[in-house]
Every structure is written in structure tokens, then in C-alpha cells.
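User: Structure with fe (iii) ion, C-alpha cells only please.
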Amino acid sequence: MTGKPTLHPTPWQDEISELIAGYKRGYALAQPFYTSEAVFQRDVDRVFLKEWHLVGHVSELPEPGDYLLFELLGESVIVVRNREGAFHALANVCRHRGSRVCLEPRGNVSRFSCPYHAWVYNLDGSLFSARLMGADTDKNSLGLKRFAIEVFHGLIYVCFSDRPEDFSTARTMLEPMVAPFGLVRTRIAARTSYPVAANWKLLVENYNECYHCTAAHPEFSRSHVIHLPERLYEPLNAKVGARAAGTGAPADRLDATGPNKPKGAIDIYYRRYALFDGYETGSEDGKPLAPLLGDLSGWDSAASDIYVGILNPMLVYSDHAVIYRFIPVDKDNSIQEIIWLVHEDAVEGRDYDKDRLTWLWDVTTESDKLIIEKNQEGVNSRFYEPGPFSPMESHTRWFVESYLRTIA
Ligand code: FES
Ligand code: FE
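Assistant:
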């Protein structure tokens, strides 16, 4: 036989291409996007192994040798601070015969020692020693594999891809908006995981629209104007600029997501929007929850929607930040993780009450968990047929279209 073998697409490649080709613009996705194992595997390859993931905050790793494990879809990554203060993201896979090197989820080490045959690695992943190996062992080629890592205002992001989306636009374009909040000078006040029996896309779709907020989130809707149709909330938002400027909070808008972003760059978004009168922050009673963030000089009764990548949205009030992480478990299950940040000097019990701080996004996420799971149950039905998006679901529509381009 001569010549190259002909490559035939596998059946599931055909299936996914047909699904994408059959998508009706302006409508929800067809059932297999939420139920097919082949689609989920494509999501893993094209989305989760390519996107940047927020894995933690620098305040979790203050000392040289401090590390934490970032675990996703069976992979384990050691995120560690080295002696010079820089961070590394290392595959937790020994270069000898593949054992996990690091077993504890958090800790402090001077070096990593594999529990199997005791190869030892430096904090930058390079191989320090390999006991009883021959003199011809090439130690230089046997370091732990490294992943791309970026630290942006104290937030640590990791990407599995060796050609990650460019982070530099996020640095230059988002810098003036994010800097006044001093996120590098915050710490994690609370962190909660909500298991959701649904495909990860239903979580992201839900987060990206507030068409459901009036019905599902009375607690959120009485303080945040964003649940209103645009023609109603825009007049309320018109006052935010002056209010924000008075406190040092940026009120500019930036949308560099989907088709608006520079080619090869990470998705970024910034917008500060109004809270209703009487609400200085996202609290139950409208009153402040914690000391002001960063350089702010007062409460402007507003919140900033910020995206650094599609999987890491956050909401920044004047006195705290709330970070969302969408974590896939398998095609039918996900975890919604929420991280609350407060000023690094804020002391629990003295400067803030944890239950008050977390109240809004806890009740809101519990409600979302329920509606997303009921969404999945309906989507699983033999009678499910995708319906049209409303104008208030424009961001969800953007996500769906952007997702289809990503997996195509
Ligand atoms: Fe790690 Fe052998 S597998 S030292
Ligand atoms: Fe919601």
C-alpha cells in the first residue's frame, strides 16, 4: 500500500457538525448540546482545555512554598508561589511513572516529593533529584509539565492550553476599570460550592440573562436594576456615572467579548450599573456590608459586572466582590462555586458579618440551582423543542453563538 491513509470523520464528529449546522439563530440550543456525551467531550477539548480558569487569589498563597491544588475534570494542577514570589502552575503528574506528586489540597513545602519512588521537584517544577537513577538520566527534560498562569489584580488564572488566549488585552483594557477596586488587597471571606444537576451550559446561560430575575430572584430584583428591560433601567443607569466618579469607581463601559474582541484574546467585559435608591451595596437591608474596597472614597450605589474569560464572571460592589466559577463535573452535573472577597484588613465579626455578606448571592444561587435543574429536566424531555430568546437574553444568545463557533 502506498500513500497516506484517508481520514474519515468519526460518527460523533458528523453528529456534532450536523448539530451545529442545524442551529436556528436566535433560539435556544437543541437537546443533544445538553445531553450528549460526545458534545461534552468536545466541550472539554475546545472549551475547558482552552479557556482561562480562575483558580484562586494570591492571599491564599502568601509565603514561598505555599501551594494549592486546582482540580478539574480529573486533572490536578499544583499552583505554587516560588521563593521569588512568582507563581507556577505545574501538572500534578510525576515524570517517572505518573503518580500524583502532591496529595494534600493545600500546604507549604520547600520541594515536592513524589510519594511513589521519591523523585523530588523544585518549586518551579524542575527535577531536583531522582534517587538511584543512572548517571545518564537527563534531569533537565524531566521537570513537571507547566501550564500558563497569569496573576491579574491578585486573581490567579490558569490555562491548560500551550497556546492560551492572549491575556495582555485584559491587562491593558481592563486595568483602569479594575485598579480602583484594589482586588489585590482583598482576601477570601467565604467560598461555597453549590452542586447543580445540570449541564454546565445551562449554568452559564442562566448567569448571562436576567429575564428570569423578576420571578426567580425577588431578593436580587429589589436592589439591582438589571432585571428590568433596558428601556427602564437605562434612565436609572444614567445617574451612575456621576455617582461613581464621586467615589473613584469607574463607570466606563467595555465589551470585548465574542466578535468584539481582538483575535486570539481572552473575552473581557466591564460595566457598572445602578442599584435602586436606598441600596448602597448588595445587602438585604441596603446598608454597607464591609469596609470600602481599594481606593474608593464612598458607596456609589452601583455594582460592576466584570468578565475575565467566559468562565469567570464577577460582580464588584463598593465594599465586596463576588466571583462566580462554573465547574463542569460531567455532562449532567456541574458545580457553581462562589467566592466572596473583602478588603484584606477587614476582620470578621468586627468589620463584617459573614451571613450578611453572603446572604444575597447565597439565596440567589439556591434559587438558580433549582430553576437550572428544572431547566435540565425539561430539556431532557422527548417533548423539548428550543424556543426563541427574548431581547433580555441578548448575552445568553451571545454566549450560545460564541460557544458554537468555539466548538465548530
Ligand atoms: Fe513518582 Fe515514581 S512515580 S517517583
Ligand atoms: Fe439567576
